[in-house]
Structure formats: C-alpha cells, structure tokens
Amino acid sequence: MVTAEQLNRALASRLGTARVEAVVTETIGTGQMSESRRLHLTYSAPCELPTTMIAKFPSDDPRSRATGKATRCYEVEASFYRDLRDALDVGAPRCYFVERDNATDDFLLLLEDFAPCRQGDQIKGCTLHEAEACIDELVRLHGPLWNSPFLATLPWLNRSSDSDRSGSQALMRQVFPGFLARYADRLDPHARRVGEEFVRDAGGYFRRTLPHRTVVHGDFRLDNLLFRAAGGATDGAGSTAGGVGVVDFQTVTHACGPQDLAYFIGAGLTTEARRTYERDLVARWAEELRKYGVQLTADDAWLEYRRYAFAGFVMAVVASMIVKQTPRGDEMFMAMANRHGVHAADLDSLSAVRGEA
Predict the structure, then answer these.
(1) How far apart are CA 40 and CA 25, in angstroms?
(2) Domains of the chain by range and CATH?
(3) Global pTM?
(4) How far is CA 109 from the centre of its chain?
(5) Are 347 and 274 in contact (CB under 8 A)?
(6) Residue 202 confidence (pLDDT)
C-alpha cells in the first residue's frame, strides 16, 4: 500500500506548498516480478504534478521477489530511470521519483500514467501496422546510444561476465527438463525439437562476442507496450497515432540491438504473419537506424536477427520456471515458447549461432 505520507516525502521537491491529502490505489497490469498500482491523487493546492501516476514496487510473492533480487531486476529498472531514461528518445514514462535500498532491494518508482491507452496482448499478437509502430519505437531506444562509450561506464548495465554467461547456459539446462514436464502436451513439436537441440549445443549463443551494442530492453514484447491514439483517446481499433509507450525496464542491458528485434517480431506476430512480414520489418528497423547515423546493412541485421530468434525461447523457458505460476502466465509463456521455437526452426537459427550460415 502506498500512503499519502510516503508520497509527501517522495514528492516533496515537486509539490511546492501543496500536500497529497488523499490517495486511492488501483491494481493494474499482470507483472510477474513487480507490483503496479495506479494512484489517484488529491492535492491540498494546485501543483505541477498530475492527478494520477503509476507506483511500482517489489512483488509480494516470496518466490518472485527472490528471483527479482537474484536477477537484479529491481536494481536495473531503478537504475534505468535514474541514469538512462532522459538520454534516449524512446517513449518511456516520465519518472517523478526513484529510490532503491541496496541492502533490502526494496524500491519505489513513481511514473507517468499513460492512460488512456491500450495495452498490447502477447497472446493475441498484433497487426502489421502496430508492429511497424513498435519497430519505430525500438529504433528510438536503440539509436541514440548505439555503440556509445558512455554505456560502458555504467556498472549496473555491464555485469555480464564470462561466468554470468556460463551461468545462463547452465540455468537453461537445469530448468528445461521441468519445463518439458510441465508443458509437454502444449508445446509445438517443432519448438520442442529445436529447443532440445539448442539446450544440447547452446554454448555459441551464450558465449559469443556481441556486435552492434546499444541499450537493449530485454523484454520488448506486446504486454510491455502501450498503444496511444491521437488526442489521448483509444478506440480499441488498432490506432497508434499517439505513439507507443514502452514500460518494464527490468531487463535492460548493454547488448546486441537485434536481440530486441527478434524477441519482438518472433512472438509479437502470429507465426503466419511473422513469416509474411519479418523481412520487411527487419529492413525497416535497419533503415530507420540510419537517422541516428547507424550504418548496418540489411544482410547483417538479418543474420543477427536469425541468431537471436532464441532470445524469446530462452526467456519463456527460464521465466516460466522461476516466477509465480498463473493461468495467464502459462498461456503467455506457451505462446512465446511455441512462436519463438518455430521461428528459430524456420530460420535455421542454430546454423547461424554456430556460424555455419
């Protein structure tokens, strides 16, 4: 529960002579790692702050909270809003307050409320028009600090050592049998086959030197994207005229930009739509990056896109086994695992990872 007293302390520098007199909270989102509440605020006097904002804080589920600490999700998101948000063009919420306790991992974010908006649906997928809008927003995340030396100066963004990468590979191998046992009857045969091959021979994926480095979201998928129609209205009919809002920066890292691209396209579209449009979407991303002076050929972008078809599969397998299990979560993870698995099979991504093609 977020109280008026907490908010008055947190927002003191922005409130001026006003005070938060009352706060009404509303649960929003289906986050697996953190809790989010919409705060409806009553002030004692006019001030610069909005009457609604989003509060984000650790999950009350012990397992998810332990996972958040082990994976540094809370540290990373708080640090993103403190150090990076204002250096990028991406449509991330404005941050009114950020605080994190290093000892306990408790944190509090007070963020801009994008309502009214329409949240993307990872299970349903999106249209081509929506996918294009998301790709353009991804460019605004990747472009400003592409290959920037500044990113190497942020310790919280650069904690992926050789031992960390080996640990990621070991974790995938550790949880995959349990994943198969839980979801075997819901897993596409092609996804299962390519997943089993990948787990046996995934070293090249986890250990490779990363080219084309930039700020990578790490979980750039529809559930974390908010479609805003022009004028602040939402018609529910797929309008994106007001832009795309991007949330949940718990997995931000300094990595290869095409990782986000493959992660989004691989499960954001249905398999049939992805097969039809993926070449054009990858080319669009590479072309739009030129506005930031990024020189990346369509062929190079396509090769890295093929390699990172496994990014979403790894996330689906690992995350489904380490966070609180819910019916909606199961459905989402299966949509991701099946679409990304078939994606990797379609593109022969194992050959790309091995450097064979």
Answers:
(1) 6
(2) 4-111 (3.30.200.20), 118-354 (3.90.1200)
(3) 0.92
(4) 17
(5) no
(6) 74
